[in-house]
Amino acid sequence: MPESPGRVRAAGAVLWRSGADGPEVALVHRPKYDDWSFPKGKLKNGEHVLCAAVREVWEETGTWPVLGRRLSAVEYEKEGRPKRVDYWAATGHDGDFRPNDEVDRLEWLPLPAAEARLSYEHDAALLREFAAGPARTTPYIVLRHTSAGNKHDWEDDDLLRPLDSRGRADAERLADLLACFGAARVISSATARCMETVLPYAARMGVDIRSDRAFTVGTSKGAGDHLAELLADEVPTIVCTHGELVPELVSRACEELGAVPPQELGLSKGGFWVLQTAGGALVSAERHRL
Prior knowledge:
There is one protein chain. By secondary structure, this protein is α/β, with parallel strands linked by helices. The protein folds into two domains: about 10-130, Alpha-Beta Complex (Nucleoside Triphosphate Pyrophosphohydrolase), CATH 3.90.79.10; about 140-290, 3-Layer(aba) Sandwich (Rossmann fold), CATH 3.40.50. It is about 30% helix and about 30% strand. It has helices at about 50-60, 110-115, 120-130, 165-180, 190-205, 225-230, 245-255; strands spanning about 10-20, 20-30, 35, 40, 65-70, 75-80, 80-90, 105-110, 140-145, 185-190, 210, 235-240, 270-280, 280-290. Strands 1, 2, 3, 4, 5, 6, 7 and 8 form an eight-stranded mixed sheet that branches. Helix 2 (about 110-115) packs antiparallel against helix 3, helix 4 (about 165-180) packs across helix 5 (about 190-205) and helix 6 (about 225-230) crosses helix 7. The longest helix is centred in the middle third of the chain and has 15 residues, at about 165-180. The chain is globular, with a radius of gyration of 20 Å.
């Protein structure tokens, strides 16, 4: 959606961990406002909202988060300007919190105590939304390869057509975005352009890339059914494929998970769908582009 003039963008997370009596969430205290809220902060110039959410949680809590299901965005007016904060559920290993001028206290609280401590109703509503759904989810990411030049200018086998300079730069940026959802198995079309798109992510996360003809344009057969089989594993997964196959994959996945597919399924180059699942159901679906 178009940005409103002067609109402030921010991102954060409901960071949780397992407690003796269920999930505990992290709340931070800001001395400037003397309030308790979820970790969040403004996007830097040119920063993707996913990276901003991860960075802000890490800066305010000392915990490097792995994003889970998408939660509702919170919109309100701050100092006469509209503000939108995008939120995710998130987990992370025990961090190293260090008080500073912006955040001087961090507390992990069970959900009832957290709701009582929160300073704002919109945060309390967000906590109730978190509590109403599964805390732990499994991401399935359908990714379209980045730019690979004009296929009409490529005289060799199209399977071998590589990324161009823009595509290689975008693949590096994608590694940062995909890493926000943690380590995942990587399954790619057998084409060079798809394999090269996920290579920076695979190298960063220390995972292998498996090629699969089911997701390869020109040789694919039953791509949607194959993805449906992968969904049954409940293993975090990235599938890198071609624009022609994305609608079939996402619609078939939604069908398998008992959800209505989004009306617009297509992706721009380097774009991706994140389908968060739990117990064989679709919990959230979000589409991102570079």
